[in-house]
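Weekly modeling sync, notes
Attendees: S.R. (lead), two postdocs, one rotation student

Agenda item 3: backlog of single-chain predictions. S.R. asked that every request posted to the team notebook include the full sequence so nobody has to chase files. The rotation student volunteered to paste the first one in as an example of the format we agreed on. Action items at the bottom.

Example entry:
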Amino acid sequence: MIRSLCTVLPSLPMRMLPGRICLRPWSVQKSLVAACLASAICVVSSCGPPRPSAASEAERAAEAAAAAKDVYVIGPGDVLGIFVYRSPELSTEVPVRPDGRISMPLVQDVTAAGKTPPALSRELEQRLKEYIRDPNVTVIVRGFVGPFDRQVRVIGEAAEPAAIPYREHMTVLDVMIATKGLTRYAAGNSAVIVRSSGPSRRTLNVRLSDLIKDGDISQNVEMLPGDVLIIPQTWF
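Predicted structure, as returned to the notebook:
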C-alpha cells in the first residue's frame, strides 16, 4: 500500500516556472506525504503480534484452576510409599501423622500434609543431598484419606456414618454405597447437603429414598470437597 501511494508522486502534474524549474503544488505534496505516513502506521500496527483478549486470559485462568483442582493433595492419615533410587535402605512406607508430618531414615519431621506428591519428592531430595549424591525420590500415595477440608462427611441415619476421601465427580450415590445405605429409621427424603462456599454456607435438599428405592437419578447430586450430608431420623 505504501509503495502504491508513494509512486503517485512522480506522475503528478507539474507547473513550469521561469528558469525551467518544475514544481508540484505544495498542497498536493503535503496530502500525499500525510497519506504515506498514515498507511505506514496502519501497516506496522497490523503486522505486530496480536494482543491476547480478556476472554482468552480468562479461559487460561480457568484451565489453570481446573488443573490445580485435579491435583491430589496429601493429608493426615495417608500412607505414603517413599522410593529412593539406588538406596533401598532409605526406601520405606510411612503414614502421615495427625500433625501432618512424616519421618524416614536420615530425615526427621517433614511436613507432608497440604503438599502434592511431586512437591514432597523434591523437598525430600533437598533434605537427602547432605547424605547421598544426586538423590532421586518418588512419593507414591498408597492409602488415601486426603486433607480434612476435602473430605465428604456423612452424619445421621446412615448405616455407617463416616468421613470419606473426596474423589473427582463423586455423587450422592457413591457416598451412599460407601456408607452402606440408610438405616430403617432414616427420613431419606428429608436429607440435606451443607455446602461451604468461602465464608457462606448453603443447603441442598436431596431425596435419598427416591434415589435408592425408586431409582430417581435426578437426585444423584454431584458432591464437592468439604460437603456434609445430613440424614435425619423419621418421626414415625
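Discussion: group reviewed the output briefly. Residues 26-47 form the longest helix (22 residues).
Action items: rotation student to repeat for the remaining queue; S.R. to check formatting next week.
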